[in-house]
Amino acid sequence: MKNILLSSMVAALLFTGCTEEKKEEMKSEKVLTTTENNKNIEIIKEKSNEILNSSKEIAKAVKEETLKAVDNSKEMTKDAVAKAKEVGVDVAKQANSVAKDITKSIDEVIENKSDSTNDNAKALYTKCAGCHGQNGELHALGKSQMINEWDESKIENALLGYKNGTYGGNMKGVMKAQVMHLSEADIKSLSKYISKMGK
Question: What is the pLDDT of residues 131-154, one digit of tens each?
Fold first, then answer.
């Protein structure tokens, strides 16, 4: 029994001693962990400050580049506006030139139309020339007036009157046969042509 008691005591002492040792070891580890944590916190603070400073430098560089880009943009806008003005002036000049060309072409078409109308009237008059003369200077069959002395309106009214049978004395029948095939447009152009003969 003595042995058992002694064994129990040794075990208790050992157990107590181990526990104290363990406690000391744990305290020591806790101090180490706290120290390491403090070092880690300092490192994190340093890195955070470095990142913050780098961020400030990057922000400054971005701001400077943005200002340069704005200045370049302003300059490019000025250049674009100047170029647009040049192009606008060139386009306006070309438009004026085209407008002049169009006006000239229209005038030529009108002139050509007048010439073709005049040519048509001239062709129509060839039938009249046999009695009235090349320039309307004869008294047709010795009975009519000289038509080159008449104005356009008088000639047109006379020709329309011959055509519908409301004008003309003893020449009415002869003239009706001459104008029956003429349209109103033919009569207008022929009247205009004859009215200019004596002028």
Answer: 888 888 888 888 888 888 889 999
Report the candidate in 83, 80, 198, 92 with the shortest Cα–Cα distance to residue 138: 198
Amino acid at 13: L
196 is written with which tokens? 């200019």
Cβ proximity of 191 and 125 under 8 Å: no
How crowded is residue 158: how many other Cβ atoms within 10 Å of its Cβ?
20
| Residues of the chain predicted below pLDDT 50 | 109-110, 112-113
- DSSP letter at 148 equals G
**Fold for domain 47-199?**
Cytochrome Bc1 Complex; Chain D, domain 2 (1.10.760)
Rounded to the nearest angstrom, the gap between the alpha carbon of residue 75 and the centroid of all alpha carbons in its chain is 25
- Alpha-carbon distance of 21 to 2, in angstroms, equals 28
Distance between CA atoms of residues 151 and 137, nearest Å: 14
Q: Which one, of 161, 140, 155, lies nearest residue 199 by Cα?
A: 155
In terms of phi and psi (left: phi > 0; alpha: psi -120 to 50; beta: otherwise), the region of 133 is left
pTM of structure: 0.43
